[in-house]
Amino acid sequence: MVLGKLRAILRHKKFTLYSRPYELNIVGLRGSNTISNRFDDEIHVFYKVKTFKWNYHVYKATTDPGTFWLENPMQPQGTAILAEGQYVNAYRLGLHRGEYEALVQQKPVTIIRDYDRNAKLDFFNGTKTTGIYGIDIHRAKSTGTTKTVDKYSAGCQVFENAEAFQQFLLLCERQRQLYGNNFTYTLIDFRAVKRENYRRIALSAGLVGLAALGFLAFTSSEKLKTIAEEIGETFSNLFKSNINHDNNQP
What is the pLDDT of residue 239? Predict the structure, then answer.
């Protein structure tokens, strides 16, 4: 995605756009696929380095839980799926499960509980709740690229590649040194964007349809008026013709 378009989406949704030098905008983009266990989403990181210059990085990731936890949820209510939204200062650099450095949740986020216990992601039927759930931003395997999500995410935002994640941590460390240990994470769900676009198209189509109906009604009434006038004129001419004919009779 072009950076300008992504920034426009953030502004349209009235999300905060950070513009101080090296202050990170961390944006997860959830794709339209509802099949679990794939790293088919993206985490975009961009920040200003000069007045008119931005640096921009894109990392393959998953914003959804893996198949294992969908089928075997930690909670009876179902597995957590992070809901679309901007979570301001909800993260800090810390230890994921006490094992390695990552961005760990420190403030409430909103989740949807998928309770179907199947391998298909369900974003619409669960109940939304807000709280501290340990929805961290971390990596999968400690080295290389991980092919399937499996147990690496029970709702966390997980990088596919370990080296890419280390690069991301260096960016986070620079921000911490400049502005403190608080990070905002924004998740944009393209399904929600598409639904909003469809609603706009439907509304526009409805307005156009109403305008067209109004035009047709106006046009039809004018045509009917013209036809009536033509018929009236025809009968009037016929009537006059008959009168003249009768007057000329011997």
Answer: 43
Domain that holds residue 130: 3-197
Q: Is residue 214 part of a domain?
A: no
Which residue has 């499996």 as its token pair? 150
pTM attached to this predicted model:
0.76
Indicate the pLDDT class of residue 241, thresholds 50, 70 and 90: very low
- Rg of the chain over Cα atoms, rounded to whole angstroms, equals 31
Give the residue from 59, 23, 56, 65 showing the smallest Cα distance to 163. Answer: 59
Rounded Cα gap, residues 10 and 246, in angstroms: 85
Distance (Å, whole) CA 90 – CA 185: 7
pLDDT the model gives residue 227: 59
- Asked whether residue 247 is domain-assigned, the answer is no
pLDDT tens column, 94-108: 999 999 999 999 999
**Amino acid present at 126:** G
Q: Based on the structure, what is the number of domains in the chain?
A: 1
3 state DSSP class of 119: coil
In a domain, 27, yes or no: yes
Q: Tell me how far apart the alpha carbons of residues 216 and 228 are, in angstroms, rounded to a whole number.
A: 18
The candidate with the shortest Cα–Cα distance to 158, out of 142, 141, 137, 172, is 137
Burial profile 31-66: b = 16 or more Cβ within 10 angstroms, e = fewer: eeeeebbbbbbbbbbbbbeeeeeeeeebbbbbbbbb
